[in-house]
Amino acid sequence: MKKLLYILCLVPLFALSQSNYDAVIDERLRATLLQHKDFVSIPNLPESPELMLENIAWVEKKYEALGFTTTRLKSETLPILLAEKVYDPALKTILFYVHIDGQPVNPAVWDQEDPFTPVLKKQDPSGTWTAMGWDALNQKINDEWRIYGRAAADDKAPILMFITALEILQEQGKTPNFNIKVIFDPQEEYGSTALLGTLDTYKSRYAADYFIVMDGPAHSSNKPTLTFGCRGIATCEITTYGAALPQHSGHYGNYVPNPVFRLSHLLSSMKDDEGKVLIDGYYDGITISPEEAIVMQSVPFTAASFNKKLGLHSAETVGKNYQEALQYPTLNVRQLNTSWTGKGLKTVVPSTATAHLDVRLVPEISGDDQLDKIKKHISNEGYFVLDRLPTAQERLTHKRIATVKTKTLVNTFRTSPQGDFGIKMRQRLTNIFNEEPVTIRMMGGTVPIVPLINTLNLPTVILPLVNMDNNQHNPNENIRIGNMRQGIKVCLGLFETNF
User: Fold this and answer.
1) Buried b (16+ CB within 10 A) or exposed e, 96-119
2) Measured between alpha carbons, how far is residue 498 from residues 94, 166, 210, 416, 463 in Å?
3) Are strands 146-148 and 478-480 parallel, antiparallel or unpaired?
4) I need a labelling partner for 64 at 20 to 30 A (CA). Which of 39, 151, 171, 262 fits?
5) Each residue of 258-298: pLDDT tens digit?
6) DSSP string of 1-34?
């Protein structure tokens, strides 16, 4: 009874605390959005080093005003910006990651004159997004308004959310419950080559107890989201052969084997009609515990509406639901082509047919092992497997020949949501928002910094804060203002977490 009374006494205090979060964010939101406007106005394409350095200088100034030490770490291309602050040597250290570059733009296909001149918009009853003057921020700010511009969401919005939360904390005379390091990647959209090239040199500078990656979109519900892993990627190119040169389909049809049909039979031997891979051992070692299944089932999802949006009658059955499907390696044909690459059609029997495959990887299976299984399967289907073009003699000696070229690009990572780090983050967000965050065990895509994650070997969580429909990498990229507001609140709550 005493325990119950104690909890009941805490409820109004908790509610007041959350009310204060909201009130102080409301007071600062206009200033934050105008800072975001200024930041997005600086083009951030790595092919313009001077402008990238201007972006870095903009961030440096903000962090130095907060008492952080900033260092430009040399790389082969653009410098890596590292911001650090030790609040108490006895506390844990969390390393945060954001990227400061953006995707290329084609202004002609944007609904505004310049992708780097941000535009504030609202949606009219017909669903059309119309521009508003920035003085609209002087009135009550609507969460459904959006700011359009390249990098408005990916990844400048999280940078501003984090800075605003730190400024609020400083103004209140408070400090985070952990020490902070922040990496600013200048080339994430181009493979993070600068950052990954510094791992041997600066590994000790990146040392921490935990790692939080602030990139990517939140769940489509716009509820606070935590993602505990991502799939890796490997590629495979398979070429089958007919005659040494393309042949006239009238003169040689029914005589010269068509490599397209050979390739199609080979590909169909790899998957069944429900999408499950038939290659021996492809799913070896992958199990889903009842606890993990519960985590995946908790992610908001309605198959009927999801499939309708995709224009899809029914899904493959690799997993019991969408989230479960992401726990398995994929086998995807991304492109097909033949020896004819010119314009129009030709009545020929092609000399070659090529399938370009990508394989999304999961932690239980290495990319090299998975690619070896594919090659073994092709051999078992009666093909003489090469990693080069066949010689004239090999064409005469072997009935079926396949050239297979493979490459593992980026590996995978996963942190347990049931681990200490995951539990504390989930509990904190639950306390702040009065409901469990959307917890994603493994997202389907791949982030280029997985080598950094695996090198540091830290418990890692992806904290996505922007709206799913932000048109990331596409024309008309945008950030929903409600996500800006919520992201600041997530950061404030995070700073008060005891790790």
Assistant:
1) bbbbbbbbebeeeebebeebbebb
2) 11, 16, 12, 19, 17
3) antiparallel
4) 151
5) 999 999 999 999 999 999 999 999 999 999 999 999 999 99
6) -HHHHHHHHHHHHHHHHHHHHHHHHHHHHHHHHH
User: 């044909």: which residue's tokens?
Assistant: 333
Please state whether beta strands 93-99 and 119-123 pair in parallel, antiparallel, or not at all (unpaired): unpaired
d(CA 459, CA 209): 8
Rounded Cα gap, residues 54 and 175, in angstroms:
29
Q: 331 exposed, middle or buried (CB, 10 Å; 0-12, 13-18, 19+)?
A: buried
Q: How far apart are CA 364 and CA 362, in angstroms?
A: 6
Residue 221: CB atoms within 10 A of its CB come to: 12
Summarize pLDDT for 39-70 with one digit per residue, the tens.
999 999 999 999 999 999 999 999 999 999 99
Q: How far is CA 307 from CA 311, 313, 314, 321, in A?
A: 6, 7, 7, 12
Residue 149's alpha-carbon distances to 39, 104, 465, in angstroms, are 11, 12, 17
pTM for the predicted model, two decimal places: 0.91
Q: CA dist 374 to 239, 266, 359, 367, Å?
A: 13, 11, 10, 11
